[in-house]
Prior knowledge:
Elements: H1 6-17, H2 23-30, H3 34-46, E1 66-74, H4 79-90, E2 95-100, E3 107-113, H5 116-127, E4 133-140, H6 153-161
Antiparallel strand pairs: 1-3, 1-4, 2-3
Amino acid sequence: MHRLDNIDRMILAELQADGRMTNVELAKRVGISAPPCLRRVRTLEETGYIGGYHADIAARKLGFEVQVFAMVGLQSQAEADLSSFEARCLGWPLVRECHMLNGEVDFILKCVAPDLSTFQSFLTEELTSAENVASVKTSLVIRGAKDQPGVPFEVLKERLSKRP
């Protein structure tokens, strides 16, 4: 297992903030030269600390006006049934995130649709009629106050500085 040092964590923080910067700019920001910086980035990719690079797409500008969180309860929570539901979610384009939870709800899905009728069709024809689905409760997003992907590196840095 690859152990992260301060430089690795700085690289990750910088790339999380701006994944498009050049290796030269990244190296300058973290205080090392470009060749070892590139080697470190490649190692972070190979060891799974960096899972990919993505553009932050403005959904509403593309006409995706509706965002909904759907809380799904299943009839059976056997591992095979949980895995089957997760696999089904992978095939639904409107489902952008799927998280298994503990408690009253088995899964929460983040869904995006161009309009309410498109989401309603998905809800009635796909989600509620899916095998093993017992209940679905939905909440329409009115507005978002914060949408910050990744992890809070400042919290990690503070925690690491307190270690003996």
